[in-house]
Amino acid sequence: MAKLELRHLNKTYTPKVIPVKDLSLDVDDGEFLTLLGPSGCGKSTTLRMIAGLEQPTRGDVVINGEVVTSKAPGDRNIAMVFQSYALYPHMTVYDNLASGLRLRKMPSEEIRRRIAEVSGFLGLDSLMDRKPGQLSGGQRQRVALGRALVRQPAVFLLDEPLSNLDALLREQVRAELKSIFESMQTPVVYVTHDQTEAMTLSSKVAVLNDGYLQQLDPPRRIYTHPANRFVAGFIGSPQMNLFDLQCDGRTAILGNARIPLPSSITPPPTVTLGIRPEHVELVSSEVNGRGHSVQGKVVLVENLGMSDLVSIRIRGTDHTTLRALIPSDRPWRQETLTLSLPAEHLHWFDAETGDRLYSEPLSLPPERPQERKEVR
Amino acid sequence: MTTVHPPAHPPAHAEARPSRFSARTLWLTVAVVLVVLFSLAPILWQVLTSIKVNADIAAIPNVYFPRRFTLQHYIEIFNRRPFLNYMLNSFFVAFTSTLLCLALGTPAAYALARLRLPGERIVLASVLIVTLFPYILLFIGLLEIVRATGLANNYLALIIPYTAINIPLTILVMRSFFQQLPRDLEDSAKVDGYNTWQMLVRILLPLTTPALVTTGILAFIAAWNEFIFALTFITRESMKTIPVAVAQISGTAVFEIPYGALAAATVVGTLPLVILVLLFQRRIVQGLTAGAVKG
To answer: ω into residue B61 within 30 of 0, thus cis?
Structure first.
C-alpha cells in the first residue's frame, strides 16, 4: 500500500530558469504514471525532486501521507532506475543488487532470498559474479532494474530507462517492464520523452510543458481528448493538423469550406481546429463523404510503409496544408484530392488561450479539478 | 540513381598489403629503438659506471662495456656514508607530502568538479597561476618564512612546501577525473541509502584509485627529486635527503671526482622510483570505470 502525492512543487534555479513552476498530482497504488514532455519541460527535475536528489524551492513530496521533502533520498523508501543505469563498476552484479539492502542492515538470509527471487525473474542467475563492464547493454539495464526491484520500495522511479537500448531491444524490454509493473501494487513514476513508451506502459500520463502540468489522463483519453493545443500537437505521430481559423458566426472558415462549430460552444473570434492525419478520410466523390470535405492539390507524399502521408494544399487558402494518412492499398493517384474531416474527430481549441473548447459526451470519468491546466 | 558498384580491383589491394605493412613495422621499430635509446642512455651509462672499477672509469679511451665488475661503489656509499638514512629521510618527506597532497587536493578537486561554486573559474585560474611562478622566486620568500618560524632542520620545512607546490597538480588532475565520473553514480548511491561519507569511501574511492595513484606518483617523484629547498632548509647531516647527499659526495682531494660513488648513489636514488612505478603500473593503466554506464 503506497501513495505518492506532489503538492505545488516548484523548482527555481534563477528567476529565469524555473524548470518546474507549479505541479500537483497523485499517484496511487498500482498506478503507472508517466511524465511525458519535450526536453526541458521539467520532467526529469520533477523525478529528481521526488527522489530527493533535488530540493524543491516550494511545495512538498508526500509518500504514504508522510511529508518527506526534507528527508535524504536513502530515507524515502524509493528506488530509482537511471538512464545510464549507474551500476557500481567495481562491484559484482550480486553486490550491486545487495548494496542497498546491506545498508539497511537486512539479514543476509533475506538479502539472498530477495536477490534469488528477482534474478530468477529477470534472468540474471548466470551473471551474478560478473562486473558491469562484462555485461551487454541489455543485461546492465536488467541489473539496474533488479537493483530497484529487490528494494521493494514504496515508490519506483524510472528515468528514461529504455533510451540507451537499441530499437529492437527497447520494444522487448518495454513489454517486460509492462508485465513486471502490472503485477506489482506499487506506484511507478516513469519519465520519458517517447510517446510510444508513455502510451503503451502507463495507466496515466502527465503531459508537462514549460514547467506546468498540461494534462493528466489515461493514455487513450490524452489521445482522444487533448486538453489543449500543446498536448494535441505533442501527442500522436504524424502530428495533428492544426489550423487557426476565423469564425463567421458559428462556422469556421477553412479555405472554401465552412465548418460549423459544435452547438455546445460559444465561439471566440478565432479558433484552432485540429484533426489527426489518420482521421482524415479520402472520398472518391463528394457526395459520399462523411463530415466536411476539403479539396486541394497534392504537394508531398511520404511513404510510411503501411500508409502514405499525403500533404495537400487546401483550395482557397494561400499555403495551408493538410496532412492525411491514407492506407497504402487505397488507390488515389490523382493530383487533386477531396478529403473529408469527420465531425467526431475534430478538436476545437481557443486560438488565444490554446484551451480545448468543448468536451464531447464523456465515456470516461470527468477530469478532476487538479488535472486542470494551470492558467498563466 | 543509386546503383551498387562492385569494389574495384580487390586482389591488387590484398597483394600490396603485406609488404607495405612490414615496411611500416620496420620504421616503427627503428623509431621505437631510437627513442628508447635516447631516453635510457644516460641511465644506462650511470648503471654501467656504478659497476666499473675505478681504473675503467678513468681509462682513456673510454671503456663502454666493462669486463671487470665490482660492487665496491655501492658498499662504499652505504658503509662510509649513511645512505640508508638519507633514503629513509627522502622517503618520509616525499611520502608524507604526497599523502597530504592527496588528502587536501582530492576533496578540493571534488568540490570544484561537482558543486556549483560562485567564483569557481577564479579559483581554478588562481590554482593554475600558482604553478606558473618561477621556483626560485618562491624559494627566497620561503627561506624568510623558514627563518622566521624557526623551521630550519625540521622535516616540516620540506613537507609543507612540497605539498603546497604539488597541490595544484593534484587538484587539476583529480578534478578532470571527477568530471568524467558519471554523476548518476553518486545519485544512485544516494538513492540506495549511502550517506556522503559511505558514498565517498565505498563508491568513489575504489573508482578513484587509479587517478589517486597516478597523481600520487607524480607528487612523490617531484618531492623525492627536489633539491634546492632540501639543500637550504636542512643542514643537519642526519636529516638530509638523497639529492642533496648525492651532490655532496666528494673525493678526498679537490681534483678527485668519485664518479663511481656518484653513479652508484644516483642508481640507488632512482631505484625506489622505478620500483614504485612498476608496482603501480597496472593500477595506473586500469580503467576502473568501465561498465558503470553505457559506453
So the answer is: yes
| Distances, alpha carbon A276 to alpha carbons A140, A256, A342, B226, in Å | 39, 20, 11, 76
Q: How far apart are CA B185 and CA A330, in angstroms?
A: 53
Q: Cβ–Cβ contacts within 10 Å for residue A298, how many?
A: 16
| Cβ–Cβ contact A131 with B under 8 A | yes
Q: Which three cell numbers stand for residue B202?
A: 565505498
Cell of residue B191, nine digits: 538513492
pLDDT, tens only, A186-219: 999 999 998 889 999 999 999 999 889 999 999 9
What integer pLDDT is reported at residue B187 of this predicted model?
Answer: 92
CB-based contact, B141 to chain A, within 8 Å? no
**Alpha carbon distance B183, B187 (integer Å):** 7
Q: Please report the number of interchain residue pairs, chain A to chain B, with beta-carbon separation below 8 angstroms.
A: 86
CB under 8 Å to A288, separation ≥6 — which residues? Answer: none
Domains detected in chain B:
82-248 (1.10.3720.10)
DSSP 8-state assignment for residue A20: E
- The pLDDT of residue B17 is above 70: no
CA torsion angle B194 B196 B200 B203 (round to 10): 20
CATH superfamily of the domain spanning A239-359: Nucleic acid-binding proteins (2.40.50.140)
The per-residue pLDDT for range B59-86, each reduced to its tens digit, is: 878 888 888 888 888 888 888 888 889 9
Residues from chain B contacting residue A104 (CB–CB below 8 Å):
193
Q: Cβ B206–A135 below 8 Å, yes or no?
A: no
Instruction: Yes or no: say if A13 and A29 are a contact pair by the CB < 8 Å rule.
Output: no
Task: Report the SS3 class of residue A339.
Answer: strand
CATH architecture of the region A4-229: 3-Layer(aba) Sandwich (3.40)
For the segment B170-204, what is each residue's pLDDT rounded down to a tens digit? 998 888 888 888 888 999 999 999 988 888 888 88
- Res. B91 pLDDT band, cuts 50 70 90: very high
Q: Which of A136, A123, A94 is nearest to B291 (CA)?
A: A136
CB B174 within 8 A of CB B110: yes
Angstrom distance (rounded) from CA A214 to CA A349: 14
Q: Which three cell numbers stand for residue B263?
A: 653513479
Establish whether this prediction's ipTM goes over 0.85.
Answer: no
Nearest to B291 among A83, A87, A104 (CB): A87
- Sequential DSSP letters for A138-186: HHHHHHHHHHHHTT--SEEEEESTTTTS-HHHHHHHHHHHHHHHHT--S
- Residue A130 burial (C-beta neighbours within 10 Å; 0-12, 13-18, 19+): middle
Q: Beta strand pairing status for A32-36 and A58-63?
A: unpaired
Q: What is the band of A263 on the pLDDT scale with cuts at 50, 70, 90?
A: confident
The domain spans of chain A are 4-229, 239-359
Q: Are A4 and A189 in contact (CB under 8 A)?
A: yes
